[in-house]
């Protein structure tokens, strides 16, 4: 139900109450509340990724390439890789031979073929972003 439909349902609600049409009045209220909740949910969704806009406001406004110190704070989080043109997950173990080394883990798809990868971010010189840059989204 749209906001306009909810208004139409509530229009004349005073007459419903005066005429003791309480059941119809209650139904109109329920429908109006449903329409308001739907509108509120749609207003809060990001049109690009369908996630909550509030999360995007908490993130930095810029989408500059991430530096190694930023990536160290993003263990387990997705990033966009410019060179591979895909998303991957930042991996950094705390113990063992590869402790504190940053890796990009993911799957690269090309048509019917998919290849798993785990690349050393620093040695490969990968350029990573919090999300796909606007200019890349426009090209796709």
Structure description:
The model has no long low-confidence stretch (mean pLDDT 80). Helix content is 41%, strand content 21%. The protein has 7 helices and 5 strands; from the N terminus they run αααααββββαβα. It folds into 2 domains: 3-44, no CATH class; 58-139, no CATH class. Helix 1 (3-10) packs antiparallel against helix 3. Strand 3 and strand 4 (113-120) form a beta hairpin. The two termini are 34 Å apart. It has 140 residues and is an alpha+beta fold. The protein has helices at residues 3-10, 13-18, 22-44, 53-58, 68-72, 121-124, 134-139, and strands at 78-81, 86-92, 102-110, 113-120, 128-129. The radius of gyration is 25 Å and the shape is elongated. Strands 4-3-2-1-5 form a 5-stranded antiparallel beta sheet.
Question: What is shown here, in short?
Answer:
Helices cover 41% and strands 21% of the residues. The chain has 140 residues and is an alpha+beta fold.
**In sequence order, what are the helices and strands, one letter per element?**
HHHHHEEEEHEH
Strand order of the largest sheet: 4-3-2-1-5
Number of domains: 2
Count, helices: 7
Note the beta-strand portion.
15-25%
Shape: elongated
Assembly status? single chain
Q: Count the E strands.
A: 5
State the major sheet. 5 strands, antiparallel
Please give the share of residues in helix.
Answer: 40-55%
Layout of helices and strands, plus pairs?
Elements: H1 3-10, H2 13-18, H3 22-44, H4 53-58, H5 68-72, E1 78-81, E2 86-92, E3 102-110, E4 113-120, H6 121-124, E5 128-129, H7 134-139
Antiparallel strand pairs: 1-2, 1-5, 2-3, 3-4
Helix pairs in contact: 1-3
């Amino acid at each position: 139900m749209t906001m306009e439909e909810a208004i139409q349902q509530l229009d004349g609600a005073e007459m419903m109450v005066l005429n003791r049409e309480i059941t119809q009045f209650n139904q109109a209220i329920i429908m109006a509340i449903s329409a308001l909740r739907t509108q509120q949910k749609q207003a809060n969704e990001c049109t690009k990724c369908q996630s909550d806009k509030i999360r995007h406001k908490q993130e930095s406004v810029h989408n500059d390439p991430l530096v190694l110190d930023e990536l160290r704070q993003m263990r387990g989080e997705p990033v966009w890789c410019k060179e591979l043109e895909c998303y991957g997950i930042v991996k950094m173990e705390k113990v063992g031979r590869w402790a504190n080394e940053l890796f990009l883990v993911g799957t690269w798809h090309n048509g019917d073929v998919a290849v798993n990868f785990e690349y050393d971010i620093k040695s490969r010189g990968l350029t990573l972003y919090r999300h796909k840059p606007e200019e890349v989204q426009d090209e796709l």
